[in-house]
Amino acid sequence: MKIMVCIKQVPAKDSTLRLTEDSTWIREQDLSYEINEPDAYALEEALRLKEKHGGEVVVCSVGPDRVQQVIREALAKGADRAIHLVADGGSRLDSYPAARLMAEAVRREGFDLICTGLQSDDLGFAQTGVVLAELLGLPHATIIMEVQAEDGRLKVKRELEGGWFQWVQMPLPALLTIQSGINKLRYATLKGIKQAKSKEIRRVIATELGLKAEELAGRQKLHRVYVPVKTKQTEFIDGSPKEAAAKLVEKLQRDARVL
Amino acid sequence: MEIAFKTQIPGGGFLIEERLPEEVFTPEDFTEQHRLIAETAEQFMRNEVLPRWEQIERQEPGLTPRLLRQAGELGLLSIDIPERYGGTEMDKVSSTIVVERFAQYASFLASHGAHSVIGTLPIVFFGNEEQKKKYLPRLATGELIAAYCLSEAEAGSDALSIRTRAVLSPDGKHYLLNGEKMWITNAGFADLFIVFAKVDGEKFSCFIVEKGFPGVATGAEEKKLGIKGSSTRTVILEDARVPAENLLGEVGRGHVVAFNILNVGRFRLAAGCIGGAKQALQHAAGYANQRRAFGKTIAQFGLIQEKLAEMATRIYAGECMIYRTAGLIDPLLAEAIPDSPAYGEQVRKAIEEYAVECSIDKVYCSEILDYVADECVQIYGGYGYHQDYPAERAYRDARINRIFEGTSEINRLLITGMLLKRAASGRLGLRAAIEGLFQGSPASGRSTEARSMEERSTEERNTEAASLLGTEKHLVAAVKKTALLVAGVAYQKFADSLADQQEITAAISDIVMEVFAMESALLRAGKMAARSGVQSSPQPIPDSGPQTVDDKTAHVLAMTRLFLHSRMDWVEQRARTVLAGAITGDALRRQLATLQQVTRREAVDTIALRRQIAARIIQKGKYAAG
Fold first, then answer.
1. In chain A, where are the structural domains located?
2. Model pLDDT, residue A215
3. Which residue of B has its CA nearest to A66?
4. Residue B538 belongs to a domain with what CATH number?
5. Right CATH number for A2-215 from 3.30.428.10, 3.40.50.620, 3.40.50.2300, 1.20.120.740?
6. Do the Cβ atoms of A193 and B33 come within 8 Å?
7. Mean pLDDT per 10-residue segment, chain A (259 residues)
8. B411 within some domain
9. Rg of chain B on CA atoms, in Å
10. Which chain B residues have a beta carbon less than 8 Å from that of A188?
11. What are the backbone dihedrals phi and psi of residue B525, each rounded to the nearest 5 degrees, phi first?
12. Region B436-440 average pLDDT
């Protein structure tokens, strides 16, 4: 099975986030980066499928040179090779141009399966995988919690709301967006880290793919990023303890919706 | 076989040569590979070891060996083992990185080090081909767990006085070992013991002893103050039958094994101390941010900020030292050819070259850890004295580091002793540097800037102060000059009997250690500043740090200034101790005047610096320069 995994480099979870002067994004100077968490699970699922069915795992990432960090990590964990789509401001691209670039770069590779994370930890649109499937003309399924591959077909378990799941059968080739927690992530072994050094990273310059500027322009614009304002409101509930308790339960159910 | 290295930097060379920032290795030079190794070690600790620390602390049977084997599967036991024997064969920077992460839990670090460093390296460095093939692949995976058995009840620092005897059987097929080894880490579950014994009661030698050999037993678990999660027992040898082929190295050459392994052990221990200190600082900062008193978090109080800043600053200096040392050893290791029969010898030589630096790191970093752990307890207040909070364990666990792998006292004697030996054998141009100092001219083009602060004009000094770290560069030149001055005076007075003057020798070592620490801190700050493009800035640095650099660089610059200025006070004090202990009368007055001239400096506002440093520690909740 020839599998591609799309991975994104995102600001590390423990970063101190400060806004840029124009408040349209976070200051990148002080950030450290890591692999987007759902993408790490997508990679793990792909590596497990390869171990079971044979084949190849190729990782693909869009962004400036610093994304090589997550590419190396994926190679150290066992991916066979990588495609780096070199695009400045890659982290600011919204889903469409990112998917468009990847579609152009991998169209001729003929992957049996493409796995992406469900969504990114920074922008969280959950669209890149879906748009990529559409651009490549592939069937897709989202929020995947289990993957079974047999006889050239897939059986996948989707997470619905309220603790419900849905099993879907679909043909290959296909695209899946993987939910965090689907499997247990492996460690990069020191041997794997050493081997990663000699694995192939194909650099594709985004501007050399022959796409028109408008095709690479974002379809969305971030107008303002801001830190949520914390507010606190105190409300006293009157009445006897019994009445007050009943009112409280009602408020927790209807207003706060936590029960 | 004589091994020559292409390297230009001699061991101890920091004392007499000037280095440029780009010549020393710092964490800013980590490769992608190093970062991935750090991540694997960190995740392993976070997911597998730390959640089980209470069981490990109780010495739950089988748990530590299982975790060691799991670490082995990831390659974390075999960084120092060549690939051809199943190892991962990586550089010292990599092993330093792993040790720092494993130090988040001192007991596990102790088990890991006893196995993978002092337990395994004797075979890597000194084993013959058969021994390496037989044992290394299984040590790499953790299938076999190793322990190092040198100390005895009455032979600790004085290691060569061991009483364990080895006698070759009349048929020459095996040795019979008799004796009892003490303080043996991993003894409770080790499969393999590296045992030192005297053949015929005279010739100090080393043996590979398997647990299953007849006559090998262990005592009860020792009741220790700290690192309670590590196994420590006696190893009892009663007519233990050890096959003759398990002699490691040559009969009568066991001391070569013992002392070289300790060099690596010391370096590694220093890295562990810095890792442990970072962990303690993180606990302390976290607690200070959360504990409220008088209507604020205690992190908002000056006296708590002062502690956090001082803890971070000393850790920073220690971190600079250990990675600089790793960076010294690695180019030499890179010259060693794994497939050559001389590989072990080459590696050993590489490490021996920097034995002084290893000892310095060991003493200095173990004392940093002690200081940090102590202040961690203080910040926790009453809760620091309670077993339910991490400060208590950090405090107990820290203490052993000043004792094992050579006490602070033994290492202080070694530092000056080894430097003088290197000077006597012509490997270090110490004599010329000291003579140059007394004649008032630099010994060579590369020697330390000899002019004191006083000799320079006011205008010159103002220009320096305005340039980045200008004053600090002169502090480093001054501490070097001070070290040479006191070493010269003491040697002139005591010559070859200097070793008998332990207090003076140790005080010289204290100054030598500060040279290495202060210069390492300065060089790293210089490198970071240059990389963020501020070195050429003609603007004076405001007290709040340069505005043009990123937060981390500004933080490092502040720590460097604080460290250099505050350590200089200590240097002066130790220098006066040496001078007054060596000379009297007019001679003393003259040298004290020279000392005063050399170390004269402006006062800096250390209160403001500490507040600035603490602000970032409080914001990040942890050490924030790594």
1. 2-215
2. 79
3. B32
4. 1.20.140.10
5. 3.40.50.620
6. yes
7. 96 86 84 94 98 97 94 98 85 83 91 97 94 97 96 95 94 97 96 96 89 80 87 89 94 86
8. no
9. 25
10. 36, 39-40
11. -60, -40
12. 74
Are A16 and B619 within 8 A, CB to CB?
A: yes
pLDDT of residue B547 exceeding 70, the answer is no
Which residues in chain A have their CB less than 8 angstroms from residue B74's CB? 187, 189-190
Enumerate the β-bridge partners of residue A144.
Answer: A158, A178
Extended beta strands in B302-346, E state: none
Instruction: Choose one of B254, B274, B304: the last residue of a domain.
Output: B254
Would an 8 Å CB–CB cutoff place A203 in contact with chain B? Answer: no
**Which are the catalytic amino acids of B?**
405
* Subunit contact A69:B44, Cβ cutoff 8 A: no
CATH code of residue B241 = 2.40.110.10
Of B36, B551, B620, the CB nearest to A188: B36
Of A187, A190, A197, the CB nearest to B43: A187
Mean pLDDT for the stretch of residues B201-206? 98
Chain B positions contacting chain A at CB under 8 Å are 32-33, 35-37, 39-40, 43-44, 73-76, 78-79, 88, 90, 94, 550-552, 619-620
Domain that holds residue B486: 428-620
d(CA B439, CA B89): 48
Q: Which of A11, A30, A19, A15 is nearest to A223 (CA)?
A: A19
Point out the domain boundary residue: B254, B281, B314: B254
> Residue B464: pLDDT above 60?
no
Predicted structure pTM score: 0.90
Reported as a single tens digit per residue, the pLDDT across B38-63 is: 999 999 999 999 999 999 999 999 99
Cα–Cα distances in Å, from A165 out to A33, A115, B485? Answer: 33, 19, 78
pLDDT tens readout for residues B371-400: 999 999 999 999 999 999 999 999 999 999
- pLDDT band at B436; cut points 50, 70, 90: confident
* Burial annotation B537-574 (CB, 10 A radius, 16+ → b, else e): eeeebeeebbeebbbbbbbbbbbbbbbbbbbbeebbeb
In a domain, B583, yes or no: yes
Domain count within chain B: 2
Neighbour-count burial of A26, counting CB atoms closer than 10 A to its CB (0-12 exposed, 13-18 middle, 19+ buried):
middle
Q: What tokens appear for B178 in the block?
A: 């008799």
Mutate to test the interface with A, among B33, B36, B99 (most CBs of A within 10 A): B36
